[in-house]
Amino acid sequence: MVAIAPEKVHDCELHEGERGVVGSVISWHYTEGGKKKISKQIIESVNEENHTIVFKLIGGELVDEQYKSFRITLHVEPKGDGQVAVWTFEFEKPDTSVPYPTSLMDFLCNLIKDLDAHNKAK
Predict the structure, then answer these.
(1) CA distance 100 to 16
(2) How far apart are CA 15 and CA 57, in angstroms?
(3) If you average pLDDT over residues 75-104, what whole number do you get?
(4) Rounded average pLDDT over 23-48
(5) Mean pLDDT to the nearest integer, 88-111
(6) Going from the N-terminus, what domains does the chain have, and what CATH number goes with each?
(7) Cα-flanking dihedrals φ and ψ of residue 25, to 5°?
(8) Tell me: the pLDDT tens digits for 38-82?
């Protein structure tokens, strides 16, 4: 993703384990809303048959500054000749003043569009 959308994703650092394996810890370095951010995550589950991966955020702005907990599920489904990415966010807000993570949703949707455009250009 770094090579496909370098203005959005700057690095994906593996701290423990292996990429795509349950229990692995990774950090994503990215720019969202004009601000450089980091999201440290542990892979909670992988279901290759259903094309689903679940990340629990354990560090970074989302859980250190905004939410009590945050979990992201990515599920990829076949659709026609292509695929559809479905992102699910589970989060706990400390109070009602904390906004919903709509900017992160927009960021991920735009990132998927970049990946799609890159794959179509091949």
Answers:
(1) 30
(2) 14
(3) 92
(4) 96
(5) 94
(6) 9-121 (3.30.530.20)
(7) -115, 125
(8) 999 999 999 999 999 999 999 999 999 999 999 999 999 989 988
| Tokens found for residue 119 | 């794959």
For residue 68, give the nearest of 53, 79, 57 by alpha carbon.
Answer: 57
Query: Is residue 2 very low, low, confident or very high in pLDDT (cuts 50, 70, 90)?
Result: low
Within 8 A by CB and 6+ apart from 78, the residues are 84
